[in-house]
Amino acid sequence: MSAGVSTQQRQREMAAAVAAAAATSGAGRCRLSKIGASRRPPPARVRVAVRLRPFVDGTAGASNPPCVRGMDSCSLEIANWRNHQETLKYQFDAFYGERSTQQDIYAGSVQPILRHLLEGQNASVLAYGPTGAGKTHTMLGSPEQPGVIPRALMDLLQLTREEGAEGRPWALCVTMSYLEIYQEKVLDLLDSTSGDLVIREDCRGNILIPGLTQKPITSFADFERHFLPASRNRTVGATRLNQRSSRSHAVLLVKVDQRERLAPFRQREGKLYLIDLAGSEDNRRTGNKGLRLKESGAINASLFVLGKVVDALNQGLPRVPYRDSKLTRLLQDSLGGSAHSILIANIAPERHFYLDTVSALNFAARTKEVINRPFTNESLQPHVLGPVKLSQKELLGPPEAKKARGPEEEEIGSAEPMAASASASQKLSPLQKLSSMDPAMLERLLSLDRLLASQGSQGAPLLSTPKRERMVLMKTVEEKDLEIERLKMKQKELEAKVLAQKAEDSKEKENHCPTILRPLLHRTVTVAKPLKKAVVMPLQLIQEQAASPNAEIHILKNKGRKRKVESLDAPEPEEKAEDCWELQISPELLAHGRQKILDLLNEGSARDLRSLQRIGPKKAQLIVGWRQLHGPFSQVEDLERVEGITGKQMESFLKANILGLAAGQRCGPS
Ligand code: ADP
Ligand code: MG
């Protein structure tokens, strides 16, 4: 393939786009290193462009008018099949009509997002649409009309050469991978012998394909050397609509790795996905049978999941079904993820494409609402962390701390080639600015250093920093340690105070109600729903009872009781035996308790009466008044005759007071 476009002109445009971006974003790199370090990354909506291809095979004419037409550079209209008098109008970020060139689409929609790769951010370009609508033409093109892929690669390689030249602050390295998803299998197109590859996600949500071939490329010739034979590996087949219909989703992945040449030796990684999706197919029209029908089923299924993912993102559903297909799993970065994404929806003007066109436009309109949050993938270079034989996880401390630090730190243990090249024997550069390091990591390195020194290690210190800076640092860490110690002491003091206060409170409460509350004082208080029938006794009291078999009080008894339980699955409610605890007091104690209550009712003052459970000042007054009018109570139940005390209240009054008096008798003088 040869890119038959003016290289110089494109380079100029590219440079202008980068300069414009830097101008609008402040000083490009500085601004980006801030992103993700503290705040949530700013949102970037998925951009959507629609490209209408011309009639192919000269089928246009008065007898075959187009079913769709452009209105301006952003909108188009299509006949409404429900009402022929009307048209449906759609608005997108860009609309490219039949006459638009490959350069128009590239310069208008793709080139502007490439600059993000040099900022360590991800970008994706997806070609979507029905089979035969021009997706492959848009992405790949032909030698005469090269598409998005060759143009983007040419510009990107030129840009990385310039940015990574000797004397510039960053060294750059570009690698490519090429894969296809065919019938839910991920196949490496750069290694035809590889089988189905797995898609994984690292702890920061990055999508990875372990084992996928990565070829370093430094020139467009390099790219063509790998890409052209790999494209021939792509699964294609003939359908009635398209002689070389793509039967798989093809994904070209271009990675731009950057390493800072000077301190603080940062590392950035930007990924570009260029995706030529297989088209959705109406099998009645394509005439698919056998294998073609099976392929088509897989293609349609993954595109259906793609639609579900877009809908879930738009509706803010808690579960986005990325994992329901390999395609959506791979696109997790691009839709609702961390990439600057652009979807190019390809449509055809022929009337027999009408329904496919409407459905592609509807999908494109829904995708327009998806919000991504691109952030900068930045970390320290692996060799900076090399000498410490701890994993990145240990270095970063607890997971929360890591989360809080944001997603810009790259995982060291990943299978990426640059990370793998980290030499464990390399030391920190003396130029390393300690102030730019994560303080937690710094502290760990320092303490490791101290540990090594105390064990008599003769090797160079882990932090080979100038002596003065090192001393200052040690002092700061020591001060911090002291501060932590001081805070710990203070915390202990406060805890002791709280405990003493609690003990005092408990004493007071014991004096007030010695029998019932004492065992509860040392237990955690939890709020539970009150049970209707069961009376819950403190566990210690039950244990005491069990420990004294001669005791005449048996307060608790385990009873099998049946209860109706309703289940969603069972048509009828089931009866289930349940354990219930109920009071059982010996008859003597019961009689004793009743007598005591009766004595109180007849002789107690209003104040004495208030010591009874459920008797407040009002009821105490009523009882005293009744007694003065009618004379003494002959039995406890006479209380029902006092105005304002109902039979129901009597029942609970008796239970509560007899229990209280009985327990009081056991535990001490009442
Ligand atoms: P898809 O990949 O969507 O199935 P293709 O890209 O293979 O479709 O396009 C189908 C046919 O239409 C091809 O012959 C292609 O050359 C032609 N075609 C598509 N888009 C254009 C366009 N913009 N200008 C000219 N021909 C086009
Ligand atoms: Mg195609």
UniProtKB/TrEMBL annotation:
This is Kinesin-like protein. Residues 477-509 form a coiled coil. Gene3D superfamilies: AF1531-like domain (1.10.150.280), Kinesin motor domain (3.40.850.10). One of its GO terms (biological process) is microtubule-based movement. One of its GO terms (cellular component) is nuclear speck. It is found in: Cytoplasm, Cytoskeleton; Nucleus. Kinesin family member that is involved in spindle formation and the movements of chromosomes during mitosis and meiosis. Binds to microtubules and to DNA. Plays a role in congression of laterally attached chromosomes in NDC80-depleted cells. InterPro entries: Hlx-hairpin-Hlx_DNA-bd_motif, Kinesin-like_fam, Kinesin_motor_CS, Kinesin_motor_dom, Kinesin_motor_dom_sf, P-loop_NTPase, RuvA_2-like. Residues 45-370 form the Kinesin motor domain. Residues 396-427 are annotated as: Disordered. The gene is KIF22. It holds the Pfam family Kinesin. Keywords: ATP-binding, Coiled coil, Cytoplasm, Cytoskeleton, DNA-binding, Isopeptide bond, Microtubule, Motor protein, Nucleotide-binding, Nucleus, Phosphoprotein, Ubl conjugation. ATP binds at residues 129-136. Its main location: cytoplasm. Belongs to the TRAFAC class myosin-kinesin ATPase superfamily. Kinesin family. GO terms for molecular function: ATP binding; DNA binding; microtubule binding; microtubule motor activity.
